[in-house]
Amino acid sequence: MLDWDHIFATRASRMRASEIRELLKLLDRPDIISFAGGIPDPELFPDVEFKDAYAEIFSGPAVSAALQYSVSEGYKPLREWLAKQMEKIGIPAGVDNIFITSGSQQGLDYIGKLFLSPNDTALVTWPTYLGALQAFNAYEPHYDQLNPGGNRTPAAYAEAAKAAGGRVKFAYLSADFSNPTGETVDRAGRERVLDLAEELDIAVIEDAAYQSLRYDGEAIPPILALEIARKGDINHTRTVYCGSFSKTLAPGLRVGWVCASETVIRKLVLLKQAADLHSSTINQMAICTVAERGFDAQVAKIHRVYKHRRSAMLAALEKYMPDGVTWTKPEGGMFVWVTLPKGMDGTALLAKSLETAKVAFVPGRAFFADGSGENTLRVSFSCANDKMIEEGIRRLSDLVRGEAAALAA
Amino acid sequence: MLDWDHIFATRASRMRASEIRELLKLLDRPDIISFAGGIPDPELFPDVEFKDAYAEIFSGPAVSAALQYSVSEGYKPLREWLAKQMEKIGIPAGVDNIFITSGSQQGLDYIGKLFLSPNDTALVTWPTYLGALQAFNAYEPHYDQLNPGGNRTPAAYAEAAKAAGGRVKFAYLSADFSNPTGETVDRAGRERVLDLAEELDIAVIEDAAYQSLRYDGEAIPPILALEIARKGDINHTRTVYCGSFSKTLAPGLRVGWVCASETVIRKLVLLKQAADLHSSTINQMAICTVAERGFDAQVAKIHRVYKHRRSAMLAALEKYMPDGVTWTKPEGGMFVWVTLPKGMDGTALLAKSLETAKVAFVPGRAFFADGSGENTLRVSFSCANDKMIEEGIRRLSDLVRGEAAALAA
């Protein structure tokens, strides 16, 4: 066999298999109750609406365009719909502030590519979305801890980045019902992130993948909306907003978007042109049709189901988990984040759980850029029914109780 | 406005607008005869077959899977079909040697990402596919000239790359009916590229986007097939083959593939997982259905039409072009490459042509990594009917004759 390592780029050494992806394979084992995925419930997909949308494309005058090459910035009617949608959440944006990506994961990859030179620093929360770390890793950055509630000085960040051989380029965060914690950054925290970004002269990357999945509580304006309120115009902002249809309509079409100042959008368009020309034309058209006809109704349908599951999971945790275990109380999204007693290890617990309790979850360590978070884990309620939640959390709690007792002994 | 330049990565300075893309805008002007694009004729899309394929997905048990997240390596039945297809062209490959990309452009981007660290060297032909240069540019390489007919020593390449601050990582070429020249590398040339790659210990990137568009002449084995003949097993080869459905079925679905040793495929899968998770599930299913049912018939249909257009364009060039102008005689593909008398400039000619002759083409310089090739241009016949070809080449030839005379005066 060829020795490829010296032919590969240095970044290839940071490309490692994802714990989450490996775990997804377990979803097919019928004896396992899985809270490991973070995928939408396929029962909720608007499949009839999509069926009609594709059928109409093939019956109408747009069929040639649907199958042909198209422009890198994306399908204009979809960008127009999105511009109106952004306005509804407090972000006045024009069509030239909207760029279509192949899912918001691609938005994160392109943002890494646009901003990060090797040894630059990205600020991320501890924990953060694992997929963001994977996307950014390809550009060989360092990570430093973003803490929206903390008070580390801008100078301290700048100095650490300089010592690491580069410059801080952006602060990345998911402010609403984040993956993995389900938590939301409050308005004051968002303003502090903007203050920090101003002082450091960096971008803010707002990952809004779960933003429209709020089940209760008051909506907090997106970071981009707060910055527009400061600056008066989206084209003067430094916040790059990444949206996704994967949690609301369907992930299999791979359609997401970025909303930002035109300067950033223009660069992203050039970058996409060089990277994959454009996202699937036909899928952008189908998403546009389904969104125009019933986005709000679809979101309302999802809310009803996921809200119930979220509440069932919180109730089961409350009912079964032993003392010393804590968890977040998300107002939306798909995840609850569980903190085990100190000294327990989520990865070891998973191995045992798959053997004995037959419950799957994601050990929390994967979400920490510094490899900490041993005693944490992520459970998802998006695909779990009442029985699975009750039974799965009961079994997991029994396992945790036993392990905690053994640890204390 | 914010000054973004110091927030962007260094690579952002190499992201520039594409001449071809800007020119595509001209396709809509009805007074212009355009040979500028390089896109398939939408009249030839198998739209009825695609209509049926999507309708069947929505009527069958696969609808949830079609709309859901899927694996990064791609839809298995499509990978199986491709493995059989590769075998038909002399490349015995297993399903684990096949990786689905969002068009072959994404394959090129991922290959740049996998192999190129800043200041590494990529060997490319002079001229080469502009989209490959754009894809690779993001990874900040140097370029050196690959000449399959030449005799520059491996040591000379290695020394030049070292002087440039890195190492030669791969030789990239389109061996069949390349974009932009339409020319084919003969078997001896392919073997020499393999020899060079062996000596330099680098990868060979075989861009096979046009490989199935041969209209006459004898097929030459793909470079990957020749290397398997040497090594006995695809998993011992260094050639990475990039295929596309964009020229045969339809580009708007964004489905292509890479065929290579499992070591390379595994890395590409990890890279894709981090970059966009996977290509559109539903589109991979639709492509698979259409390919399984009638790939060969579709290719035969395209051959008939494009072969006629190719021949009409060569005849028109022969009939109208003045002495001192030469052009390639492609046995397939979509392009003819025209060399003007020395001293003429393709870009200046285009500006004049759009005003007076009303004919569009692509100036050749964009395809040269070193910015040479002033007196060359690319004309595409894929979307031109007899009348457009006759009239367009006549007008272009008249313009060239006048310019050449003015230059000689």
From TrEMBL, chains A, B:
Cofactor: pyridoxal 5'-phosphate
Keyword check for Protease: no
Name of a matching Pfam family: Aminotran_1_2
GO BP terms, alphabetized: alpha-amino acid metabolic process
GO MF annotation terms: pyridoxal phosphate binding; transaminase activity
Highest taxon listed in the record's lineage: Bacteria
Domain Aminotransferase class I/classII large: 66-396
UniProt keywords, alphabetically: Aminotransferase, Pyridoxal phosphate, Transferase
Keyword Transferase: yes
Subunit structure: Homodimer.
Membership in a protein family: Belongs to the class-I pyridoxal-phosphate-dependent aminotransferase family.
Protein's name in the database: Aminotransferase class I/II-fold pyridoxal phosphate-dependent enzyme
Organism: Ensifer canadensis
